[in-house]
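Late entry, written up from scratch paper. The run itself happened at the end of the previous shift, but nothing got recorded in the book at the time, so transcribing now.
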Amino acid sequence: MPQDQSTPPHPAYDESKPSVHLIVATHAAERLALVLDGAARQSEPPATVNVAVDGEDPRIAEHCRRFAAETGCRIHLTQRVSHGVMRLAQTRNNAVRTLRTLGYAKGLLLFIDGDIVLADDCVRMHRSLHRHGHLTIGERVNLTPAQSAALTDDGRLPNEPEIASELVRLRRIHVRTTRNIWLRRVRLARAHKPNIIGAHFALDLATYERVNGFDESFQGYGGEDEDFARRLYAVGTRPLDAVLRTRVYHLHHPTRSTPRPRDNPGSIRFRTRPWTPVCHAGLRTPVAQHPCHVVVS
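Output as recorded:
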């Protein structure tokens, strides 16, 4: 495994605050340059950027090298051949396994997907909100095809009036999340509520390890986020609402979901299979996979 642990942190990084490790799980290169541009614009940059790929598109490595050269931020790329079925849970775990192998034993993990662009203060906000043993719940602004094209063409993020309907939706989600946090406090919440979306959430590495990370038996679309949330809550993790305090933008693209989300294979597994707080096939006990190739820039 090639590595160089002598690389200093980004000069703007404040060591007195919790280290933020940005985790980007993806399967394609098409939108990764925009995702990394968002990471490069952060008012307070992450300590590391960790790109984990379910596939072997060579363009991804080039995007990562360019990001490292232009920003000075340390980036870890973990890549392997696809197994022909979606393995998002394993891909996320692969990024964290690489972090642990490189000697990182603590810090805040900020998870996004490979179609998410961070607002310029997203890392700073997550760092300031972080509380040990908490799960920070974010959401996303869904961009229209035209807004996504504008961001692709000239790097322009939409202004507030252009996303007015999305802001209304986020306020509704904030109310629902706040209500579910209250229900959890009085032990009336459903096992996985308040829910998370894998496109935007954060928690400390120790909490992630406590439940053995994501359950890699979830393959195909859906279910892994709900399962991860219920297992975190089962071991006492506290939810923290950041729906209106942190912002990310979702680039429009065709979905891989079925027309009815509950019909996705992972969603069916979530509803029908038994589960334990510490999953059997996870971070420390991975499902067999093709060899991972790791590059540190």
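The two ends are 12 Å apart (CA to CA).
(Scratch paper discarded after transcription.)
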